[in-house]
What does this fold into?
Amino acid sequence: MTKLDVVIRHGEIVTAAGSTGRADVGISNGTIVQIGGVVEGHLELDATGKLVLPGGIDAHVHLSVPPEEENVDPRWVDDFTSGSAAALAGGITTLGNMTFPSPEETPLAELERETAVAREQIIADLFLHPVLDKVTPQVLDEIPRLLDTGCNSIKVFMVTSNFESQVRSYVEAIRRAGENGLITLIHCEDYALIEDATARLVAAGKSSLRYYAESRPVISEVVATQRAVAFAEATGAPVYIVHLSSARALEVCAEAQSRNVPVYVETRPLYLHLTRERFEDEDGAKYVGQPPLREQQDIDALWAGIRQGTVHTVCTDHAPWLLAAKLDPAHTITNLRPGVANLQTMLPMLFSEGVRSGRITLGRFVEVTSTNAAKLFGLYPRKGTIAVGSDADLVIFDPDLTLAIEGSRLKSNSDYSAFEGWQVTGWPVVTLRRGEIVFRDGEIIGRPGSGTIVPRGATTPL
Ligand SMILES: [Zn+2]
It folds into this structure.
């Protein structure tokens, strides 16, 4: 009998359908070639007592710096190598990065420039979302050509004056994206309401970050989400709401979904585990993200949304800083550094707080961390599941391993975690990316440049 490259023995195989029982998984040339049955491998991994999960797909990370900010210091501190290390140690094998344009740069040029950088650095597999800035006729003309280059998404920030000055062009961009198999990612916060709330707080002498949540109220997210839903409804094009944070914005999406409007929802760990009281802490600035932390009822609604299927993905929005930069005493509600590092802790925390505590099933856990993103971003079934013919992106996951989160010991170049000291049960022990062991027993083994930019097909509706 010919030997396979790698065999994972005795693990409990988990997909979006839940646990499918214990079976050996055979891997050859980076692909899963056999599940169950008698096989021998050159390399054998024992997964007794462990889960075998499809590699996580985190569709929302920031591992590169907008070109116009290249000389700004400090900046986000992870490149594609350190970001990959954090991801792989956290069970995530594929990353979707936000690619920002330099002034006047078109989507195809953005992709070409960032692909060249990423190719040298990446260890995980990668895809890129070109961000739209000025929506010129040339930008609109390129949208139908993106899928041919392996890109099935664009990203739009609704939270800027730039958006407000060209709404109609953005609607046309979303329409063309949908007509050509692409999905549009939208940051839903309303520019005018945030400016208004912020100005009133500043005038009242409340500009410290203690008032950060009030400066970006829930209503600013609700009205922007309603608008995104309206764009999807008017154009028929799918939209993907990034980092949704509130119960009321989720209600807007759920209502649209019930009418078959193609609206997909992402949330992130900040909104599943922390409430706005954290901004009153002395070091509350370290929790600042956009949108801000909300209330316990919002946390409960988001967990219910994952359970019920109105929330489709949990992604990190990994935007790493050094703690000193984040806690700069000069920061106010008008001058701050949004975002936190999350890549290594997201899956373990979702498992610990979600699956172990009975809030969500194991199948749903896989669905929101891998399978749904694979479908929406044109990677399924090559990625996002465990099946013969799929890429051997696999995580051997110890459901009983308990570790306390220590930000300074994580793989990200960020030196703290928003979840410092949390006891978390359930961690990856081995991660394989296309059949190659890239993380094992705490160490990253994968080589920078060994990851690939994965070509994507059209969006598959969920
Ligand atoms: Zn982001």
Notes: Residues 297 and 437 are 41 Å apart (CA to CA).
